[in-house]
């Protein structure tokens, strides 16, 4: 079963025939909302909106540990985290779909591990590369079948939010090698790895990052591009063939 974590612009999954809504509480607390179990075009899906059903939990306040653990409890075998991001690299224009292959984590103060200390076996998970190769390949095949352009690699910089970045911060991220910037990619990806669940991020560029674009306000851009981008992401996910 595919676990799908929706981000900004993907709070509900159209076309999902819901069989069951599971309200779970985990030893790490409550996930962002009930996990919707259902089917979309014959594919079994467990859907969880990262920011909650209808209400907006800000990126730094999301209980990532509970979200990932809840998806594990319902039995997902793979997870795709859909994320709205800002574009830093010249090719990362609003409306583009991106399949990042690496991460720089700028977040702080988040509950970012299941290794809690003495009572848990300490695991130094390998995180290079941070995303699952097989799942990324399946997403690439699906995009090709659907004739949807998707950037095959990018470095995903993850900031703390909820404020957007300054132009100088974005310039620094560009020098660091970041191509896109979002606020929710971490610790989500690392927690999935700790739980041994193959995870990939499908990023939708919804704006030029601060100081990069020609001057449209970021929020105006997001409004303009979020639906187009999310629609493409869903078409890629819909045709995904998991091995
Ligand atoms: N910065 C950080 N997170 C984002 C952005 C951005 O420009 N756009 C969408 N999520």
Automatic annotation (TrEMBL):
<dbReference type="GO" id="GO:0019509">
    <property type="term" value="P:L-methionine salvage from methylthioadenosine"/>
</dbReference>
<comment type="function">
    <text>Purine nucleoside phosphorylase which is highly specific for 6-oxopurine nucleosides. Cleaves guanosine or inosine to respective bases and sugar-1-phosphate molecules. Involved in purine salvage.</text>
</comment>
<keyword id="KW-0660">Purine salvage</keyword>
<comment type="subunit">
    <text>Homohexamer. Dimer of a homotrimer.</text>
</comment>
<feature type="binding site">
    <location>
        <position position="8"/>
    </location>
    <ligand>
        <name>phosphate</name>
    </ligand>
</feature>
<feature type="site" description="Important for substrate specificity">
    <location>
        <position position="219"/>
    </location>
</feature>
<dbReference type="Pfam" id="PF01048">
    <property type="entry name" value="PNP_UDP_1"/>
</dbReference>
<keyword id="KW-0328">Glycosyltransferase</keyword>
<dbReference type="InterPro" id="IPR000845">
    <property type="entry name" value="Nucleoside_phosphorylase_d"/>
</dbReference>
<dbReference type="GO" id="GO:0017061">
    <property type="term" value="F:S-methyl-5-thioadenosine phosphorylase activity"/>
</dbReference>
<comment type="similarity">
    <text>Belongs to the PNP/MTAP phosphorylase family. MTAP subfamily.</text>
</comment>
<dbReference type="GO" id="GO:0005829">
    <property type="term" value="C:cytosol"/>
</dbReference>
<feature type="binding site">
    <location>
        <position position="184"/>
    </location>
    <ligand>
        <name>phosphate</name>
    </ligand>
</feature>
<feature type="domain" description="Nucleoside phosphorylase">
    <location>
        <begin position="3"/>
        <end position="239"/>
    </location>
</feature>
<feature type="site" description="Important for substrate specificity">
    <location>
        <position position="165"/>
    </location>
</feature>
<keyword id="KW-0808">Transferase</keyword>
<dbReference type="InterPro" id="IPR010044">
    <property type="entry name" value="MTAP"/>
</dbReference>
<feature type="binding site">
    <location>
        <begin position="207"/>
        <end position="209"/>
    </location>
    <ligand>
        <name>substrate</name>
    </ligand>
</feature>
<feature type="binding site">
    <location>
        <begin position="50"/>
        <end position="51"/>
    </location>
    <ligand>
        <name>phosphate</name>
    </ligand>
</feature>
<protein>
    <recommendedName>
        <fullName>Probable 6-oxopurine nucleoside phosphorylase</fullName>
        <ecNumber>2.4.2.1</ecNumber>
    </recommendedName>
</protein>
<comment type="pathway">
    <text>Purine metabolism; purine nucleoside salvage.</text>
</comment>
<dbReference type="InterPro" id="IPR035994">
    <property type="entry name" value="Nucleoside_phosphorylase_sf"/>
</dbReference>
<dbReference type="GO" id="GO:0006166">
    <property type="term" value="P:purine ribonucleoside salvage"/>
</dbReference>
<feature type="binding site">
    <location>
        <position position="183"/>
    </location>
    <ligand>
        <name>substrate</name>
    </ligand>
</feature>
């Amino acid at each position: 079963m595919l676990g799908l974590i929706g981000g900004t612009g993907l709070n509900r999954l159209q076309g999902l025939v819901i069989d069951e809504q599971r309200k779970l509480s985990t030893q790490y607390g409550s996930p962002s909302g009930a996990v919707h179990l259902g089917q979309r075009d014959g594919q079994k899906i467990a859907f969880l909106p990262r920011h909650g059903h209808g209400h907006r939990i800000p990126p730094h306040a999301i209980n990532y540990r509970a979200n990932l653990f809840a998806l594990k409890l319902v039995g997902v075998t793979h997870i795709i985290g859909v994320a709205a991001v800002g574009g830093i690299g010249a090719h990362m224009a609003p409306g583009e779909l991106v399949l990042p292959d690496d991460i720089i984590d700028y977040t702080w103060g988040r509950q970012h591990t299941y290794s809690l200390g003495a009572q848990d076996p300490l695991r130094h998970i390998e995180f290079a590369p941070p995303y699952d190769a097989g799942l990324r390949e399946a997403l690439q095949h699906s995009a090709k079948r659907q004739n949807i352009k998707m950037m095959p690699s990018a470095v995903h910089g993850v900031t703390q939010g909820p404020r957007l970045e300054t132009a100088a911060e974005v310039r620094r991220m560009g020098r660091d090698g970041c191509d896109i910037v979002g606020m929710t990619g971490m610790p989500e990806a690392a927690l999935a790895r700790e739980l041994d669940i193959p995870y990939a991020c499908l990023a939708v560029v919804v704006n030029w990052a601060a100081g990069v674009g020609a001057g449209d306000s970021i929020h105006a851009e997001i409004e303009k591009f979020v639906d187009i981008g999310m629609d493409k992401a869903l078409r890629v996910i819909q045709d995904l063939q998991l091995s």
